[in-house]
């Protein structure tokens, strides 16, 4: 995936007039499950909403599609195993800021980072994730949007769609990279914003040093999110689309 050219896009334009959704509608019931493609998508895409849901007493669990091990493929100091471990550690640190004191179960699927496809999702994986949702009393699923221009985001969206249909529970998608650039905004667009959790989200973003700074400095082609995009995600309302 190539980075967007600017912090602008038709989805962002539509979000300016989209209604705000309260956490009671975004996370109905006792629990929620997030299906995320990489460590950090839970923070950049829906960190405020996750913090609000857990602070209001809801139980949360995360299904991690990939470990994000391919973000710096040429690093000598951080091979794929080391990078995967680092990114999982960053996820745990970020969750400590977003959901302090709350045990958040994280289940790894270990799909290949940057190479997954919806066709890779087996019926057994759908049943496995559905069982995890039931174990964690999830009454809603959040995931990345199928309109995000990244194969792993689209695979996570496809998995969440199948599980939500299997369990007949609501499914909300949050837009990450799909908020930038051209395209037709989907129906069911809404936004979440709760300033009480902005500081926690910013602290969680700061945990992802491998993705936002020069922690990994031996791979000039590795992914580093430009500061202008970091600032955007840290401050902009979170964009959700009701899928089911």
Q: Care to describe what's here?
A:
The protein has 244 residues and is of the alpha/beta class. The chain has helices spanning 10-15, 23-26, 41-55, 80-98, 123-135, 151-167, 198-206, 209-212, 227-235; strands at 31-36, 59-64, 105-108, 138-144, 171-174, 189-192, 238-242. Strands 3-2-1-4-5-7-6 form a seven-stranded mixed beta sheet, sandwiched between helices. α6 (151-167) links the parallel β4 (138-144) and β5. It is globular. The mean pLDDT is 97.
Summary, kept brief:
Helix content is 39%, strand content 15%. With 244 residues, the chain is α/β, with parallel strands linked by helices.
Relative helix content = 25-40%
Task: Write the element-wise H/E pattern from the N-terminal end onward.
Answer: HHEHEHEHEHEEHHHE
Strand order of the largest sheet: 3-2-1-4-5-7-6
Oligomer: single chain
State the shape: globular
Number of helices: 9
Mean pLDDT across every amino acid position: 97
Query: Approximately what portion of the residues adopt beta-strand conformation?
Result: 5-15%
Low-pLDDT windows of residues: none
Distance between the termini: 27 Å
Q: Tell me the number of strands.
A: 7
> For the CA atoms, what is the radius of gyration?
17 Å
Give the class from helix and strand content and strand pairing: alpha/beta
The largest pleated sheet is described as:
7 strands, mixed
Secondary structure topology:
Elements: H1 10-15, H2 23-26, E1 31-36, H3 41-55, E2 59-64, H4 80-98, E3 105-108, H5 123-135, E4 138-144, H6 151-167, E5 171-174, E6 189-192, H7 198-206, H8 209-212, H9 227-235, E7 238-242
Parallel strand pairs: 1-2, 1-4, 2-3, 4-5
Antiparallel strand pairs: 5-7, 6-7
């Amino acid at each position: 995936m190539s980075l967007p050219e600017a912090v602008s896009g038709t989805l962002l334009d539509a979000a300016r007039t989209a209604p705000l959704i309260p956490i009671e509608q975004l996370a109905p019931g006792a629990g929620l499950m997030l299906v995320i493609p990489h460590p950090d998508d839970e923070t950049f895409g829906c960190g405020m909403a996750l913090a609000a849901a857990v602070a209001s007493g809801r139980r949360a669990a995360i299904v991690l599609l990939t470990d994000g091990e391919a973000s710096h493929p040429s690093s000598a100091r951080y091979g794929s195993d080391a990078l995967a471990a680092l990114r999982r550690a960053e996820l745990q640190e970020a969750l400590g800021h977003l959901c302090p004191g709350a045990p958040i179960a994280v289940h790894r699927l270990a799909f290949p980072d940057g190479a997954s496809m919806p066709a890779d999702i087996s019926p057994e994986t759908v049943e496995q994730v559905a069982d995890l949702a039931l174990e964690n009393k999830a009454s809603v699923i959040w995931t990345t949007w199928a309109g995000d221009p990244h194969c792993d985001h689209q695979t996570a969206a496809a998995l969440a769609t199948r599980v939500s249909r299997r369990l007949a529970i609501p499914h909300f998608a949050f837009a990450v990279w799909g908020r930038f650039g051209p395209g037709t905004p989907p129906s069911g667009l809404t936004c979440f914003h709760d300033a009480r959790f902005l500081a926690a989200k910013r602290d969680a973003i700061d945990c992802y040093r491998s993705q936002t700074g020069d922690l990994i400095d031996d791979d000039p082609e590795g992914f580093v999110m430009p500061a202008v995009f970091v600032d955007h995600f840290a401050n902009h309302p979170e964009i959700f689309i009701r899928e089911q």
